[in-house]
Write a structure and sequence with these properties.
single chain; 106 residues; mainly beta; six-stranded mixed sheet; four-stranded antiparallel sheet; 6% helix
C-alpha cells in the first residue's frame, strides 16, 4: 500500500458488550456478554455516515473518514445507554474502540 493510500485508510474496530447482565455481579464470574447483532450507526454532523452490525463475538470493524462521530445503537431501550457516544477517527489510523451498552439492570 502506498503512503498516500495508507493516509486515507481510517476507522475503528473492537467489541461491543452488554453489562451488567445480572443484578449482582459475582467475583470471578463475567458480568458482561458480547452484544451480538447490534447495529452501530456513526453520525458525522448529525448525518449518518456508516452503519455496521456486530458479529458473533460482538466484534465490529468500520472504515470512516477522519472526524468526530456520534455513535448510536438501533433499538436501545430507554434505560439503556451506550458508552462512549462520541469517538474521534484520526487520519491514517484504524484504532481499537470498545463500546459498552449499559443494560440498566440494577
Amino acid at each position: 500500500m502506498s503512503i498516500f493510500l495508507a493516509a486515507l485508510v481510517a476507522g475503528l474496530f473492537g467489541t461491543v458488550t452488554r453489562a451488567p447482565t445480572m443484578p449482582v455481579c459475582i467475583a470471578g464470574q463475567l458480568c458482561s456478554k458480547p452484544a451480538v447483532g447490534v447495529k452501530l450507526t456513526f453520525l458525522h454532523d448529525g448525518v449518518p455516515a456508516k452503519s455496521v452490525v456486530t458479529g458473533l463475538k460482538g466484534t465490529y470493524r468500520v472504515q470512516l473518514p477522519p472526524g468526530v462521530y456520534t455513535v448510536r445503537v438501533a433499538g436501545l431501550a430507554r434505560l439503556q445507554r451506550l458508552s462512549p457516544v462520541t469517538v474521534v477517527v484520526h487520519r491514517g489510523v484504524v484504532a481499537r474502540q470498545a463500546f459498552v451498552i449499559d443494560t440498566g439492570i440494577r
